[in-house]
């Protein structure tokens, strides 16, 4: 069964998403980019408030959008975000000459890092396998550009399936994200990742990913993921 990860920007959204059935809560600021970071002090405050109501709900947070070769800044931000109390720290990694070095660095840090393999130009199977061998708690396949294309527009299903298998071969959780919504439910179910991440589909249609998260949308989508036979009628 694929669990729903809800990306939220505030404590109010975090509590709404958790109450509505999101299995994982992901902290990021959609107005600051694909993996826009919430201020570290605010992350700590949201974590405290959420854990007072949901003490075992997994929480992740991004470090913000940084170039893959910004090794020192990436390492520093990972430690800062980890120290804010989250369970997982998400870091975007763009395929290219610096990707393997960045992944190796992330695996060496004293934090539970989840690399986000940005796949706008296709998924790199070799990189997915390399990441899968480094012992990360999870690996995400996502897109950096929020231009209307979904992950499935950028990566064909057979390639994505092979990448998920390679990434999860040694026990890492696998996650898909990237402007996903109701139209992609059948593809998500066919792939069967451990987690599917959403933001835009959880917000009011008129405002998109920058709008307010709607807990009713969270509940409907979580239910559809948990009960795939009913998903078509719910949509």
From TrEMBL:
Keywords, alphabetical: Lyase, Schiff base
One GO MF term attached to the UniProt entry: lyase activity
Top class in the EC scheme: lyase
Keyword Nucleotide-binding among record annotations: no
Pfam families per the UniProt record, alphabetical: 4HFCP_synth
InterPro entries xref list: 4HFCP_synth, RibuloseP-bd_barrel
E.C. no: 4.2.3.153
Catalytic activity: 2 D-glyceraldehyde 3-phosphate = 4-(hydroxymethyl)-2-furancarboxaldehyde phosphate + phosphate + 2 H2O
Entry annotation: catalytic residues: 28 (schiff-base intermediate with substrate), 90 (proton acceptor)
Record's function text: Catalyzes the formation of 4-(hydroxymethyl)-2-furancarboxaldehyde phosphate (4-HFC-P) from two molecules of glyceraldehyde-3-P (GA-3-P).
Protein name in UniProt: (5-formylfuran-3-yl)methyl phosphate synthase
């Amino acid at each position: 069964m694929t669990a729903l990860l809800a990306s939220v920007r505030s404590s109010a959204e975090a509590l709404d998403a958790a109450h509505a059935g999101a299995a994982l809560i992901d902290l990021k600021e959609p107005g600051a980019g694909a993996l826009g970071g919430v201020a570290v002090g605010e992350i700590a405050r949201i974590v405290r408030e959420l854990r007072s109501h949901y003490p075992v709900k997994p929480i992740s947070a991004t470090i913000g959008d940084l170039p893959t070769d910004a090794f020192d800044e990436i390492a520093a931000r990972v430690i800062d975000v980890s120290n804010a109390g989250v369970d997982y720290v998400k870091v975007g990694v763009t395929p290219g000459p610096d990707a393997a070095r960045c992944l190796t660095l992330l695996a060496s840090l004293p934090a539970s890092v989840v690399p986000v393999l940005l796949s706008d130009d296709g998924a790199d199977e070799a990189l997915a396998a390399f990441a899968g061998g480094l012992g990360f708690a999870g690996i995400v396949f996502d897109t950096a550009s929020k231009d209307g294309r979904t992950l499935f527009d950028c990566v064909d299903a057979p390639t994505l399936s092979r990448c998920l298998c390679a990434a999860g071969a040694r026990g890492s959780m696998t996650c898909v994200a990237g402007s996903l919504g109701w139209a992609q439910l059948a593809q998500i179910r066919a792939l069967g990742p451990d987690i599917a991440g959403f933001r835009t589909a959880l917000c009011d249609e008129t405002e998109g990913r920058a709008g307010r998260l709607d807990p009713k949308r969270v509940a409907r989508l979580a239910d559809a993921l948990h009960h795939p036979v009913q998903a078509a009628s719910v949509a």
